Amino acid sequence: MIGWDEVAERVSRKALVSIAEALPAPAELDAPLARHTWIGLGGPADLLVVARSRDILVEAVQLARTYGVPWRVYGGLTNILPPDAGLRGLVVLNQTRNVQFGPDYRLAVDSGAIVVKVAREAVARGWGGLTWAVGLPGTVGGAVVNNAGAFGGEIAQILVGADVLDEQGQVHQVPLSWFGFQYRCSKLKGAGNRWLVLGAEFQLRSGDVDHLKAKADVYTERRQRTQPPGRTLGSTFKNPPGDYAGRLIEAAGLKGVRCGGIVISPHHANFLINEGNGTAVEFRTLLKRVQRTVFEQFGVMLEPEIEILPEPETQDSVQESDAAS
After folding, report:
1. Residue-range definition of the domain harbouring residue 46
2. Mind listing the pLDDT tens digit for each residue in 195-240?
3. What stretch of H or E contains 36?
4. Are residues 219 and 293 in the same domain?
């Protein structure tokens, strides 16, 4: 199987066109990713496909495998930093949205469902257990892979199991324990294209609608008050044990520091904002400066919570040599 990091010349244009023609779904060659990412960064994908059903999602992946084309599947692109040079091969935007509220507070959801919408529907029905996610960006698939969480709740607390596609094109129903969840992490994070989450099942619980709505309002207000507006990838770094990444970055005197069009938010130091003319290289340069400065001052190496896709090595080595100011 061709790895995602193969050079562009290895991706056959003819194969990409064949995939696009074979799919009964919108497909675009040389599609700019910046218009799909929350932070507004990213160069063109060789081929971009929008999958609005599980069948199309699986078919797109299988076609890529058949033609030897590297592929990636993304949901909301809320915490992904694509490179300025774009992504080679096939990029699939997962927009599978089916949601089923079943008996005994079991919730079955497609991996492309929007977390916020699912959480708010659960609150409206008086289903507890997912209220912490009423302001969480992204899709269910990404939330599962990253063990997303907020306000003391996380996916690992409510997930029963999931449907995943393996390398041979077989669908498996796997239990909670299969994911090996840790803080903001599962064994699928960074695993590339070996497995793909198609859907997830959650165990929620009975709750009082008014109480859940009031709690959701509190969470929403707190998120709006503490998190800056603008084009960001959310929290940039994981909180280290016993501390907060934002506190360390602020204590290091980095609030408001910028590199080109990317700036560390003066409102919350764990957010890097694209002011409209930034680049992915500038984002990574500023991120590295934060890591280096915090480590030098406090001996803590901050670990990114976002997924960072590198530029080709030759481009990085030139452009990232410039210091953030």
Report:
1. 8-94
2. 999 999 999 999 999 999 999 999 999 888 878 888 999 899 999 9
3. none
4. no
